[in-house]
Amino acid sequence: MKTQPDDLLPIGLRDRLPAAAANASAVEQAALGVMHSHGYDRVRPPLMEFETSLAGRMDGVSTRRMVRFTDPASLRTIALRSDMTPQVGRIAATAMAEAPRPLRVCYAGDVARLAADQLSPERQSLQIGAELVGSDGAAAAGEIVAVAIAALEAGGAQGISVDFTLPDLVDILSAKALPLEAGQVDAVRRELDTKDAGGLRDAGGADYLPLLYSSGPFEEAIDKLAAIDAGGALASRIEGLRQIAARVEGHARVTLDPTERHGFEYQTWFGFTLYAEGVRGALGRGGTYRIGGTDEAASGVSLYVDGLIDSLPEAVNGKVLFLPLSHDAMRAEALRGEGWRTVAAVSDQDDATSLGASHVLQGGAPVAL
Amino acid sequence: MKTQPDDLLPIGLRDRLPAAAANASAVEQAALGVMHSHGYDRVRPPLMEFETSLAGRMDGVSTRRMVRFTDPASLRTIALRSDMTPQVGRIAATAMAEAPRPLRVCYAGDVARLAADQLSPERQSLQIGAELVGSDGAAAAGEIVAVAIAALEAGGAQGISVDFTLPDLVDILSAKALPLEAGQVDAVRRELDTKDAGGLRDAGGADYLPLLYSSGPFEEAIDKLAAIDAGGALASRIEGLRQIAARVEGHARVTLDPTERHGFEYQTWFGFTLYAEGVRGALGRGGTYRIGGTDEAASGVSLYVDGLIDSLPEAVNGKVLFLPLSHDAMRAEALRGEGWRTVAAVSDQDDATSLGASHVLQGGAPVAL
């Protein structure tokens, strides 16, 4: 047998062979199981839909990197989903508009994009998420963070940490406690993004300098942030963060980076990023947001579990029962019913050991090899 | 909340909302579970790959109806998979070329196509399949048929029937027992396809007329076929069919339509189609084939389970425990560990009954509503 050049996959795409596929399915089922146990119902939107529909529900969703094509039926542009969150937003706003709130929905599926970027060469990811539609309060956000962490734990993640941010921090402060001139707001945001103290001062944001030092382990950082908040403009935000942090105590290490905005283009007051030991990059991201079109408040999380799947050890093969040619089919069926995994000979050359069997059926009973 | 025109999905695509999504996931997990118990390992190929790779592994796979686009990285054409079988064939022939034979692999995933056709308006389907690579004998084919039927049974299909065919029947007969002139073979095939007795006679295929009457319930039809087989050209085929039919006795009604070729463009000696009561159209199709490129013998089945999913009754909601605001989170976690599904209040307006709860947590214990 030969490998032809055509057998190579395009860059950024890959097969998961049995060991990796088993881990992927286990992570997917474990995460969905946790979400189900917290009351989240799975929905299954299609692989592709109108480009305008995918782009219209959320700020910061660009269709530029999506696989797009002209629908021969409607002559409109269809795009392959690169993120399932806008699809779930669409469902919440339309087909499930009349469902009682808060509405809890979850999803799992492959998403894809036309081109890779420098940070991640992958063009397909397994996305798993949960959305709590109808509330963006601290209780809702805290539930989402707790469910996300429990889902990752169930999937085998270890040493989970979560980094909180306040995406609208500068808006809040500049409106009240630390006024900025209209032309300065964007510059101050930019310098906070790069954490450049000199630049921040030059941009007229000297009052914002202490924010650069309000990051790190949650308890210390939140105290520093509270100390800055002289006018009380952030009081409800700070109280909310403390409430969310309390929800996940003992399940994850919590840090605060209140000025982090990257990746939170459509979040409102709260955003978070999930990490785990031994997994490169973020495992998930979420927060509070408003669904485009209806402006309904929501809290949600998207987990990108490929890194976690890759980090897991190969599952150990369980017991496998070899069924010789002309075995008793009824007996084999009964043994599968008892939990046995079987592998049947289809010719007299089939070899139990090379096929990975641990037992062989002899006289109606499994005998260890 | 309003429904915008953009929220409508392209024709042939749809969302599965909670009740339907639960049935889809249940069917998928049940079918994969059956395949796993018979020794099939799941593989997860990507959503898309090079067009040549999807088309090259199997006769009869046309890329005309696939979603295709130019890969900006390689400048080659990538296609969205419209069938996962060629992907599994590629894996068997390359990455798993050295794995022991017979190789048992299974898969489940969404497949899509650019345009619908008259018979089926859907542009996305959930495909679940099993391939036994390394054998196309009656034992292998029989296992595939039996596993497919068990997978559909586990998914809730009732009144399953399976229709057998012999895709190379005319080749075999015309080569030996019932010779035809070279120019006649195609015409005879065509008339057999349309089951047109007059046309068959006109095409010079009078000897083939009895084949038109060798269809129907398996036992009678196979006897008729055997009676035609004067020269014994079909003896091994007939013996193989009997062996496969015996495998599924009691699990499915078996019929024979030996001249049916439609949908069996890449099958070799054996093909079959699966049906279930209350489900329109075929639920699956399979048979014996050879993997393109390596020409390795294989037996396999593809199940298209959307019709089955649509036919299932809505799952009954199980017990759901409402957790009031400021409930004991540890206690809730313990109850989920015992199997409870919970739904937590995120505001004091959240109503247990409208959220579908059957119980409410009071004093640390679930109390029926």
UniProtKB/TrEMBL annotation, chains A, B:
Identify one Gene Ontology CC term for this UniProt entry: cytoplasm
Q: Please list the residue ranges annotated as the Class II Histidinyl-tRNA synthetase (HisRS)-like catalytic core domain.
A: 12-307
Q: Which GO terms label this protein's molecular function in UniProt?
A: glycosyltransferase activity; histidine-tRNA ligase activity
Q: Which residues cross the membrane?
A: none
Alphabetized InterPro entries for the sequence: aa-tRNA-synth_II/BPL/LPL, HisRS-like_core, HisRS/HisZ
Q: What are the alphabetically sorted keywords of the record?
A: Glycosyltransferase, Transferase
Tell me which SUPFAM superfamilies the record gives. Answer: Class II aaRS and biotin synthetases
- In its UniProt record, which GO terms are filed under biological process? histidyl-tRNA aminoacylation
Q: Where does L-histidine bind?
A: 83-85, 113, 127, 131
Please name one Pfam family that this protein belongs to. tRNA-synt_His
Name this protein carries in UniProt = ATP phosphoribosyltransferase regulatory subunit
Reply yes or no: does the keyword Glycosyltransferase apply. Answer: yes
